[in-house]
Amino acid sequence: MSKRSTSLLIALSVVVIGSVVFMKSRNTTPTGTDVSGAIGTVDKYRSEQITPSDVVTTNNAAAPDAFYLALANDEASLETFNAIWGRMSAQERLAILSRMDKQMASSILERASVDERASLLGRSTPEERASILGRMNATERSSVLQKAGVEATAFERATETERAQMIDRANLSLDRMSVTERAAIFNQATPDERMNMLGRATADERLRFYERTTATERAAVLARASVEERASILQRATAEERMNMTQRMSVDARAAIVERASVAERASFADRASKEERASMIARAPEAERAKLEKASTDAERASILNYATVAERASFLDRATEAERAAAFERAFVGERAEASLEKSAEMEKTARN
Question: How many CB atoms lie within 10 A of CB 355?
Fold first, then answer.
């Protein structure tokens, strides 16, 4: 090997070895005592990770009907709901129950007496009667048409419009049929037709039908009520019931009620705060106010401490309030917040319901 080749090989080896040493030194990270010095080792704070048991779910604005769905599966709560429902006026109950769907209305009409079914058939239009007769078998239809003075053969050949005109002319004759016969005709009506007939009944007639709804059906209908109507129902609760309602509300809803508390109530809430909670709230206040808040003495000054409370803290303060304070705060709650209050699984209310 020539001297030139040997020199090149030695130079290449030096470059390779130098590169390996350089890369190794780049990947070496100082740890532990290697980083201690004038400022010492840095310890990073790591909070504990939450577990499924730490998560508490509540009825919230994202699922306002969750309470009503739970209500339909809880017998004691249904009894309690019925107690509050009974305090509503007939007009209010009519307004809410009128939103039931056709399947539920048809189910309720299944409980109607023969006389009531015959009466409802009288509310049908000629078009509805013609449609109902069209569903009957030929023998039954012929018998009905014969008593009504309508030629069965002509009815069979007629169009839907012509059939309705025939029935319109024979309505008086149909109404002279026996109650049982008219009830039998009504039984052939579809849920849509029954819903329409029920809608044409008088308010008193509809109330009689609606009063036969089961507690579960009423809870299902209530899910379609407006926020104002739900709040109106809950507003009829007793002071004890309201106290339990606030405990079933979401954290955000309870915190919002505390925000509407009077100065005296807010001052009372602040007095119930632990030393740690009080210090935490004051620490969040502007520096200029901290000294004043630490020495707070008047109701207004103590009440102002709650301005710096977290949502969870405010909700917690409401839980510690007296029955009177909770009832008073509930009175001032916005309509939407009262409507979101949950009655389910309230021990005091269930006891009342069972008694």
Answer: 5
